[in-house]
Every structure is written in structure tokens, then in C-alpha cells.
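Please fill in the sequence for the structure shown.

STRUCTURE ENCODING:
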């Protein structure tokens, strides 16, 4: 079992990578200009990534707990259409997915693995695959970016790797504590300048975003004269995505 100090370092390093702009898109993936889509409160898909996928930017309240707060976040959503028309009797609706992290890009996940996932799910029923970049991540805006320079991010990672764990002595523990505190300060200053978003990007908020995505998906089907999903979520989560699924079930057991 990893020592607490080692676990803290791994978690912090994962956060550093997750909030890196360079980590949002793999080099071998097709490109798409997400700013070409105007964010909307209703779900409006547009052809994207060479026309093989559909993308949307769905506006959500920044603070779900404060109805008087008019600030918003635009969630980047991607859909791999089903292999049958939505009007076909074998159409099974949408399966939402989250690849984990926390902080991994659902857009990137569907681009890389969406078709493989769809092949594994399709039997008598055929599903469309939907994922998203959680608030603060990847193509969703505002972004949670602690460092605006790659050099500063790399320096932080190297310092974290070089400090040693609890067994390295009290000086190493104090240095690690100071390093983590300084990282927190850097993130707080950057967040205030760019958003803010980090204070509103917890798992409970993302679970509430999922409710909104399910509801807007049903609304879209109704507008198009198609059968909706009854407001219920079909979901597959990986790694941290299983925790998100557990939050959803706990907070919205009827959904």
C-alpha cells in the first residue's frame, strides 16, 4: 500500500496533468474548433471531427446551489451516433460515460474508444455514446488551469518527484507541505483570473450536470418528435467515473 505522502504526490501529479492544456488533446486525434459552436441552454448538436461525431456546448449554471448567480459554464459534449436510426425499434437510447481522472476528457475518450465501446454494448439494442469534458476540463469553459506556462508546470512536477516521502526526514515533509501550499495558492490566483471554476467543479456539481444533460437529451428528442428516455440515465464510468456514478445514484436515486 502506498504511504499517505506518496498518495498525495500521485494525486497532485494527476491534477497537474489533468489541468494541463497540452493534456486535453492527443496528438493523433483529429482537430475541431470548439469555439465555432455557440453555447446554448438547449441541446444543439453540430457535425464535428470530420463529420463522424456530433458536438454541442451546453450552458449550465456555475453554481447549482445559488439560483441568483447568473454565471455559467459551457460543457463540451460529444456524441457518437448509434448504428441505427433513432426511430428504429432496436435503438436503445444514449449511454453516457466518464473516463475518470478526475479531470480526464470525455471528448478525447469517445474519439479514441467510443466505437470500441459501442461495439461491445450493441446486441439486440443499439446505443449512441455520449460523453463530455467535465466543468473546468479540456474543451469546457472556463478552464481550470493553474499554470499558463509549460516550464512552470514541469518544474512543479520535478520538485514533487524529488522531495521524497515521509521516510526522507522532517525537512522533506516540511518542504512537501510548503510546495503543496504554494501550488494551492498558484491555482487559486489563476482560478480567480480565469473563471473562477475550481470552487464549483466538485463531483456533486458534475453529477447535477449529468441530470441536466439527460433532461436536455430528452427535450431534444421531444422537439424532433422522437421517443425520449424517460429522464433516466444509462451510464458507464471508469476509475473515478465510478465515483461520479455513485454520487449520481446517491443524489438522484430515481433517475
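FILLED IN BY: designer on duty
SEQUENCE:
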Amino acid at each position: 500500500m502506498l504511504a499517505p505522502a506518496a498518495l498525495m504526490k500521485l494525486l497532485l501529479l494527476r491534477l497537474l496533468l489533468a489541468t494541463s492544456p497540452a493534456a486535453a488533446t492527443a496528438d493523433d486525434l483529429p482537430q475541431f474548433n470548439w469555439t465555432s459552436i455557440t453555447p446554448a441552454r438547449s441541446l444543439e448538436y453540430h457535425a464535428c471531427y470530420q463529420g463522424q461525431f456530433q458536438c454541442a456546448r451546453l450552458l449550465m449554471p456555475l453554481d447549482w446551489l445559488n439560483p441568483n448567480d447568473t454565471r455559467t459554464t459551457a460543457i463540451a459534449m460529444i456524441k457518437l451516433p448509434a448504428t441505427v436510426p433513432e426511430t428504429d425499434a432496436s435503438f436503445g437510447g444514449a449511454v453516457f460515460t466518464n473516463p475518470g481522472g478526475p479531470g480526464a476528457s470525455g471528448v478525447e475518450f469517445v474519439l479514441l474508444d467510443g466505437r470500441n465501446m459501442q461495439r461491445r454494448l450493441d446486441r439486440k439494442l443499439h446505443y449512441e455514446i455520449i460523453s463530455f469534458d467535465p466543468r473546468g476540463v479540456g474543451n469546457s469553459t472556463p478552464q481550470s488551469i493553474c499554470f499558463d506556462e509549460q516550464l512552470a508546470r514541469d518544474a512543479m512536477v520535478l520538485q514533487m518527484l524529488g522531495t521524497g516521502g515521509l521516510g526522507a526526514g522532517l525537512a522533506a515533509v516540511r518542504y512537501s507541505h510548503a510546495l503543496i501550499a504554494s501550488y494551492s495558492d498558484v491555482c487559486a490566483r489563476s482560478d480567480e483570473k480565469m473563471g473562477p471554476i475550481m470552487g464549483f467543479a466538485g463531483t456533486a456539481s458534475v453529477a447535477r450536470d449529468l441530470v441536466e444533460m439527460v433532461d436536455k437529451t430528452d427535450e431534444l428528442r421531444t422537439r424532433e418528435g422522437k421517443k425520449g428516455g424517460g429522464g433516466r440515465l444509462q451510464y458507464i464510468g471508469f476509475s473515478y467515473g465510478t465515483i461520479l456514478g455513485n454520487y449520481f445514484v446517491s443524489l438522484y436515486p430515481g433517475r
